[in-house]
Amino acid sequence: MTERIVLAYSGGLDTSVAIGWIHEATGADVVAMAVDVGQDGEDLETIRQRALDCGAVEAYVADARDEFAEEYCMAGLKANTLYMDAYPNVSALSRPIIAKHLVRAARQFGATTVAHGCTGKGNDQVRFEVSLTSLAPDLKCIAPVRDLALTREAAIEYAERNELPIVTTKTNPFSVDQNVWGRAVETGFLEDIWNGPTKDVYEYTDDPAFPPPADEVTITFEKGIPTKIDGRAVTPLEAIVELNQRAGAQGIGRIDIVEDRLVGIKSREVYEAPGAMTLIAAHRELENITLEREQARFKKQVEQRWTELVYDGQWYSPLKQNLDSFIDDSQEYVSGEIRMVLHGGRATVEGRRSDSTLYDFGLATYDEGQTFDQSAARGFIDIFGLSSKQAAARDVRFGKDKLK
Ligand code: ARG
To answer: How many domains is the chain built from?
Structure first.
């Protein structure tokens, strides 16, 4: 039987051309694999048919939207994932699930090799290949765009010569990757980092400078997961989709940063993640009232490390799994409601309530009926400040003047 290679197929120019390129370069039959992670583009049937029309012998298509929302986006939410304090790991979260489906397809179609369409300059090649190594160390992986140096011009030329059913004339100036968690836009005009993003960069968000009237939303969480919006039960996918719409209409979640890639390049990225940024803001505030102080401080460090591991393609690594256990455990009491106002580019928390809150009105209030024993503060400070006091006394003995 002819050898089979499963290609992660997007339906775009590069991977459409890659079907023929791989077949010509290796003699193998190509199986196209496409997953819907909420990228909101063409339907899976159209993509399947195009793959077959471009020469794939089989097509594997999967609606992975709920799986992606529940197992990947929600893990990101629980970790408040923000790489470089800004980017909610939109593309980074999708690569491990695509890799998982690549392996499933390889098993189903008896392939020993898989392929992806990444270039050699980005993070995504690392994420795919490291995930594949963890899930199926026996599988080989090829990357035609990178390893066969497939340029855009060559791809267009190939598509035209072979009359592939793919639009080659419309030159999109940007490289875009999108899913339900957000949208990443790079290249072209944005590579001059002094240039501001133009209107055509954005699709998930409207201009925050001209917002519709303010939109108040109440999000209910159970153990860190959104379960209701304005009292209506929602799945994680529905929560993200609804907030993408409502926060997107207010221009919330636009991010423009120069980012440190794993491969050492600094690159300019524009992101839009209205639902993700709104959910993270709400989730963080709920944690503020439900996590104990030391737990919250430590979780911040865990979040940072988790986020770097996921950005760096280590989704299936042992350390990432260990950190997941900590994060999941920390969510035991992260249940309750957050009320926010979405308006003009900002998602502002205005109210919070929870049966498992640690906020104690009696301890906090400055009014009548407070329960905090203020007389205990003195002794606490005496002991808390004792080591500083000892060190200061030594400075005095040695004649050091700290006011100078
Ligand atoms: N820099 C981002 C990341 O590494 C986004 C990459 C998305 N790819 C793209 N073609 N725009 O996660």
So the answer is: 2
Same domain, 167 and 312: no
Looking from the CA of residue 261, the nearest atom of ligand 1 is 4
Overall pTM > 0.70: yes
| Residues 207, 121 share a domain | no
Q: Is residue 40's pLDDT more than 90?
A: no
What residues make up the domain containing 286? Answer: 179-353
pLDDT at res. 169: 58
Task: Specify the CATH number for the domain of residue 50.
Answer: 3.40.50.620
- Could you give the strand order of the β-sheet that contains 266-272, starting from the edge strand earlier in sequence? 175-179, 182-186, 266-272, 254-260
Angstrom CA distances, 229 to 66, 83, 238, 302, stand at 17, 27, 9, 28
pLDDT in tens, 83-141: 999 999 999 999 999 999 999 999 999 999 999 999 999 999 999 999 999 999 999 99
> Is 44 annotated in some ligand binding site?
no
- Ligand 1: residues with CB < 6 A are 91-92, 123, 175-177, 184, 186, 259, 269
